[in-house]
């Protein structure tokens, strides 16, 4: 079974939207301040739409093992970058 990158991105967006809708409905419905809504929108656009699209496109061109290793290394790379940026010694 094979999906096009656009379909994978659309399904990820749908899944993320459903998770957000359910969690928002089940909680006390706190809304963030209006001044940070633009930042939240930009972050969600980058992390859900752009990342999903680029990963789906990349998986068409490389073997899944390469993609799996790259995805597995992302949390470690993020932690290293954050500790270097904040000058923290974990």
Beta strand count: 0
Largest sheet: none
- End-to-end separation in angstroms reads 42 Å
What string, H for helix and E for strand, traces the elements in order?
Answer: HHH
Low-confidence stretches: none
The Cα radius of gyration reads 17 Å
Q: What proportion strand?
A: under 5%
Sum up the overall morphology in one term.
Answer: flat
Structural class: mainly alpha
Q: Tell me the number of helical segments per DSSP (H or I, 4 or more residues long).
A: 3
Q: Approximately how much helix is present in the residues?
A: over 70%
Mean pLDDT, all residues: 86
Explain how this protein is built:
It is a single chain. This protein is 77% helix and 0% strand. It is built from three helices and no strands. α1 (5-26) packs antiparallel against α2 (37-61). The longest helix has 25 residues, at 37-61. The protein is flat. The model has no long low-confidence stretch (mean pLDDT 86).
Could you list some keywords that capture this structure?
single chain, 90 residues, mainly alpha, 77% helix, flat
Write the layout of secondary structure elements.
Layout: H1 5-26, H2 37-61, H3 64-85
Helix pairs in contact: 1-2
In short:
The chain is mainly alpha-helical. Helices cover 77% and strands 0% of the residues.
């Amino acid at each position: 079974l094979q999906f096009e990158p656009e379909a994978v991105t659309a399904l990820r967006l749908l899944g993320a939207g459903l998770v957000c809708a359910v969690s928002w409905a089940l909680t006390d419905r706190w809304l963030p301040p209006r001044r940070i809504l633009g930042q939240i929108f930009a972050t969600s656009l980058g992390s859900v739409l752009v990342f999903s699209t680029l990963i789906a496109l990349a998986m068409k061109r490389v073997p899944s093992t390469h993609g799996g290793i790259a995805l597995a290394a992302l949390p470690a790379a993020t932690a290293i970058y954050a500790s270097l940026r904040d000058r923290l010694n974990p």
